[in-house]
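wait is this the right file?? whatever heres the structure
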């Protein structure tokens, strides 16, 4: 009897050993904090509950700047996480380190990713990332100050200047019509696209940012800056303090901007970005990439399984509802749940319409990381009145030319 019991114990230990060996652990590096982290934690826990053989170490790496630097260091050392959030201009820095996802994702999942997002995640024809926390640029405004939101550049500029006032006559502006953040060149790039301008020609052989379309756009930004609070920090705080009547920001900023409005004691609404020749609006937010470097086949399979889970319609919709981001799949955007949610929350319907009407992504040029940095430098000079638009654009074009020639 004792011998038989001993066999049972040995068999149980062997079985336990097999189970333990079959466990796979993956690291997921992210930059979601405060209002967005709980939704991500909920989804990851749900995934692990469904897949008890997979453990996901969800590792917050600080803000996007911190995450990018840590990923650069990890890739250079040959020890990246299994999966991580990343902007397109980060991805171009380590294309060879990533898993081509079209070789791993099921055909049904691939076919369900919205075509606009699908193209934004292809590099040299390969799907190296998938959309995750994607937002779109929209207009936030106070209806008590802006009864009808502007729909054109001219209306936006005129209203912004009309709402910029020194209420007590002390020579200091008490209320600005709008606000602008120099570290966010995507606002300029949105208006550049609306003016049918571009950073580079389609074949990337020529710098076009300082052509007549680019100059017209930068001149518009310079005029707008005269009626704007120009600051480096997020605009939610001055908005809540009553310093700004309306401003252009991402849909991901919705929870923060709404909280600021509620704290300020006024209503906030959302409208599409004022249009020009078209109604383009730049898509923001990161994608998910799976690293092949230093990962086992089992870890790669587990990460792909997590991606497929996150792309399920019910999960991409849950993520969107909780965060202000957009559903990223055809089934998610067309689901009855999302339709019902946007009917109950009209501001979210505006964000969806803005994306479907004119959403576009980052330039995939391998030098875009540095190109974006120099755009920030000269864009800020114009907004702060330190350089005229033509001089700034010509200097910017010269630096971009040097970058793409390296």
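ok assuming it is, sequence goes like this
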């Amino acid at each position: 009897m004792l011998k038989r019991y001993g066999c049972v114990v040995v068999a149980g230990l062997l079985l336990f050993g097999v189970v333990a060996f079959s466990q796979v652990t993956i690291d997921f590096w992210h930059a979601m904090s405060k209002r967005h982290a709980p939704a991500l934690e909920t989804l990851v826990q749900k995934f692990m509950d469904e897949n008890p053989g997979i453990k996901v170490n969800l590792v917050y790496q600080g803000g996007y700047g911190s995450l990018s630097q840590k990923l650069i260091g990890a890739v250079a050392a040959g020890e990246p996480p299994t999966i991580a959030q990343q902007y397109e201009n980060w991805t171009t820095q380590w294309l060879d380190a990533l898993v081509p996802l079209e070789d791993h994702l099921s055909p049904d999942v691939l076919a369900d990713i919205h075509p606009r997002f699908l193209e934004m995640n292809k590099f040299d024809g390969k799907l190296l990332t998938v959309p995750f926390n994607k937002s779109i640029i929209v207009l936030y405004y106070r209806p008590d100050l802006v009864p009808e939101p502007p729909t054109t550049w001219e209306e936006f500029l005129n209203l912004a200047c009309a709402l910029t006032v020194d209420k007590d006559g002390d020579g200091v502006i008490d209320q600005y019509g709008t606000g602008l953040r120099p570290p966010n060149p995507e606002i300029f790039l949105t208006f550049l696209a609306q003016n049918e301008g571009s950073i580079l020609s389609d074949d990337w052989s020529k710098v076009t940012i300082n052509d007549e379309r680019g100059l017209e756009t930068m001149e518009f930004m310079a005029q707008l800056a005269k009626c704007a609070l120009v600051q480096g920090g997020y605009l939610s705080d001055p908005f809540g303090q009553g310093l700004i009547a309306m401003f252009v920001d991402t849909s991901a900023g919705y929870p923060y901007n709404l909280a600021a409005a509620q704290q300020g004691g006024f209503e906030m609404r959302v409208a599409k970005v004022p249009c020009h020749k078209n109604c383009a609006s730049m898509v923001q937010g990161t994608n998910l990439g799976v690293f092949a470097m230093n990962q086992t086949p089992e870890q790669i399979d587990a990460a792909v399984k997590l991606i497929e889970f996150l792309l399920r319609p019910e999960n991409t919709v849950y993520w969107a509802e909780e965060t202000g981001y957009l559903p990223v799949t055809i089934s998610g955007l067309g689901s009855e749940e999302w339709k019902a949610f946007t009917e109950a929350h009209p501001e979210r319907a505006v964000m969806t319409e803005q994306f479907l009407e004119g959403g576009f992504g980052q330039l995939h040029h391998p030098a875009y990381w540095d190109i974006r940095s120099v755009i920030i430098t000269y864009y800020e000079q114009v907004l702060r009145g330190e350089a005229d638009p033509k001089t700034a654009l010509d200097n910017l074009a010269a630096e971009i030319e040097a970058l793409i020639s390296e």
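The radius of gyration is 24 Å. so i think its the right one actually
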